[in-house]
Amino acid sequence: xxxxxxxxxxxxxxxxxxxxxxxxxxxxxxxxxxxxxxxxxxxxxxxxxxxxxxxxxxxxxxxxxxxxxxxxxxxxxxxxxxxxxxxxxxxxxxxxxxxxxxxxxxxxxxxxxxxxxxxxxxxxxxxxxxxxxxxxxxxxxxxxxxxxxxxxxxxxxxxxxxxxxxxxxxxxxxxxxxxxxxxxxxxxxxxxxxxxxxxxxxxxxxxxxxxxxxxxxxxxxxxxxxxxxxxxxxxxxxxxxxxxxxxxxxxxxxxxxxxxxxxxxxxxxxxxxxxxxxxxxxxxxxxxxxxxxxxxxxxxxxxxxxxxxxxxxxxxxxxxxxxxxxxxxxxxxxxxxxxxxxxxxxxxxxxxxxxxxxxxxxxxxxxxxxxxxxxxxxxxxxxxxxxxxxxxxxx
Length: 395
What we know:
By secondary structure, the protein is an alpha/beta fold. The protein has 13 helices and 16 strands. The mean pLDDT is 95.
């Protein structure tokens, strides 16, 4: 009889994703007492007691700041996300932000909204004609966009800007081969953030929040910006030094700060276009994220394959036997040897195997030629450094 998995859902998740859990073998809901996996969007998991039964966590989005990744890693629990699933939605919002800033649309909208309703059309038109000069803007072609971070979103933004007639300068010292291949050839390579700050009238940030990227845009960096630069932040609030951005706005070094992360320090500032975290808030993005992360969770729970886990290496192996063992362990010498020895002592022949590592985590899939008894799993679990072992027989 096939095993039944329980999935604990902590947020509203698109039905397009939830429907991919087969009803015969999955129980999905908000009241799972001993869940095999957790599905989450924005719920803060740092303060919750995560049951020992949890084998994996799926984030229906990109960022995992709301998930205790380090603590889960110590338990051998992968944290999956959906990189790129919301990339087009974020790209479109970045373009909207650039256009709003270039044409002074927030101020123009505010001007029209404040006109007295008592005015007749003639008086209204007179005020509009007199006031519109205050909102004259610029067109995007012939201006330069600097893109800091050339992952999926950054690459899409760069491509869209080129199609709009802009010059694009890109900076990403950690760019992957895949991302580099996806970049339009017209994107010019910058060698430093300082180069981007000096050369561009629009600067868009698309980097993850890490210790090294916290306050990446600092007072020192902003001093290099051209007067009237538009800064767009659709990464994370802490990528910029908010106090430095505020000072740059007040001095005119920045014309606008466009962000998807409202902060109290910017409340009411006329040169801040703050959106309520709308980057992934489209029907399509929510569906894409849910479908992607559900498929990844299922592949892990049923076959042990790992794709797009922030704390695990990508490990995918086609089934060549109905008897599979999956093991997560500390990335230290001789772990594979000790696991193999435990299996050899039980008379198990390894038909196929794959082992990969990522930072301090290593992960192994082993297909064997015969059924595995619980004593073998216990022996592998007893190896120092092994964090989690699962036996995944194919029904």
